[in-house]
Write a structure and sequence with these properties.
This protein has about 375 residues and is α+β, with helices and mostly antiparallel strands. It is built from 12 helices and 9 strands. The chain folds into 3 domains: about 55 residues, no CATH class; about 70 residues, no CATH class; about 190 residues, Ribonuclease H-like superfamily/Ribonuclease H (Nucleotidyltransferase, domain 5, 2-Layer Sandwich), CATH 3.30.420.10. The longest helix has 24 residues.
Length: about 375
């Protein structure tokens, strides 16, 4: 045994270990007079894989080291990205962002120059910022106190700006004629829709938005919806075969029936003459108003009622399926418009008097988007 070896004594074993292939850190600290002992996991340097091993590192330390290395790599990438100059040009903007900006400018311009006169004597917010705040309120159903903190103004100013802008937008959009003529309907009629139901002028469906329970007993009774099992406001929505919102009724209490809403709407107003002879209306099975439009020679196209029969005839089943496949367009339009969360969250009592106008504005704004119905649908 040469000078560069150490003898490690264990019961029943005599091992000779060369110290030239081990470091001093590979040995345990032992009592004086005892043979030195190797640490667990010590590997002689004569093995090639020993160079990549970390003898003293526990699995937990290894995981920590890997996390730190990954974090350092992330910070390095972030630093590199921060040094890149981003030029805001139409070429590098995403198509969705560009479309949203264009739609916002179009909507703002459609309101006319009167937007600059709403708060002419105050400098709280720019008109575009005020419109942005109102759209945030409609889209996200934000509370007034949250918007006040966001825009740095008082809660009362938020409420005043919202009420003023909502009424202004409502009256401005009411000036736009959203009820198209028969020629326009035929021009933009989807091909498959035109083959099956060529005379369809409008697709009708009722929708409801929840409200907070009124304190007045009579108001609770008027707004109670047996269908939704809550207090709601109910309105009738109509769209063209191509998916454009063409009719928005006033909002009534949830207890009102579909027939009552149509009876009090402009659809039956003889002075407006909204329909022509031979037109047809597509509606759900529950909207039983065929007799109301019979005098105008307008047919109401609804799914077939059983009327005492146990099942429908095969021809009626096929027809009902065709009606359902086309009536789904109004369901899609309603779902799109209810992307405005103010229509899904319970409306507070302080905004209840604005219910009809909130519904009208939210549904009318959806016409500023691209059609959701394909031209071949």
């Amino acid at each position: 045994m040469g000078p560069k070896t150490k003898r490690l004594w264990q019961p029943g074993k005599h091992n000779v270990v060369c110290s030239s292939h081990f470091k001093d850190t590979d040995y345990k600290i032992t009592l004086s007079g005892e043979c030195p002992r190797l640490k667990k996991g010590a590997v002689p340097s004569i093995f090639p894989f020993a160079l990549s091993l970390t003898n003293d590192e526990s699995p937990r330390c290894q995981r920590k080291r890997k996390r730190e290395e990954a974090s350092n790599e992330h910070h390095d990438c972030t630093d590199v990205l921060n040094t890149i100059e981003v030029v805001d040009t139409p070429e590098i903007q995403s198509s969705s962002t560009t479309e949203a900006i264009d739609e916002g400018h179009v909507f703002f311009n459609c309101l006319g120059p009167c937007v600059f006169e709403l708060f002419r004597h105050t400098t709280l917010m720019d008109p575009k910022d005020q419109l942005f705040m109102v759209l945030m309120k409609l889209r996200q159903a934000k509370e007034d106190i949250e918007l006040a903190l966001f825009f740095g103004i008082s809660e009362s100013s938020i409420s005043r700006i919202f009420n003023t802008w909502l009424n202004f937008i409502y009256f401005q959009l009411k000036e736009l004629c959203i009820w198209p003529s028969r020629d326009v309907i035929q021009q933009f009629m989807p091909s498959d829709f035109g083959k099956k139901f060529p005379n369809t002028r409008v697709i009708l469906d009722a929708t409801e938005l929840p409200i907070n329970k009124p304190s007045n007993v009579n108001a609770q009774s008027i707004t109670w919806s047996a269908y939704k099992h809550k207090n709601t406001l109910k309105t009738m929505i109509g769209c063209t075969p191509r998916g454009a919102v063409s009719f928005i009724s006033k909002a009534y209490g949830g207890s009102a029936s579909d027939r009552q809403i149509i009876e009090n709407s402009d659809l039956l107003n003889p002075d407006l003459k909204m329909f022509e002879k031979g037109d047809s209306i597509m509606a759900d099975r529950g909207i039983m108003v065929q007799d109301l439009f019979a005098s105008q020679d307008v047919y109401v196209n609804t799914p077939t009622m059983l009327k005492g029969k146990s099942q429908l005839d095969p021809e009626e089943v096929i027809r009902d399926r065709r009606v359902a496949s086309k009536r789904i367009h109004i369901e899609r339009v309603t779902g799109l418009s209810k992307g405005f969360k103010i229509l899904r969250h319970p409306l507070p009592q302080s905004k209840l008097h604005l219910g009809s106008r909130i519904v009208y504005v939210c549904f009318a704004i959806s016409n500023f988007r691209k059609s959701i119905v394909d031209k071949n649908a």
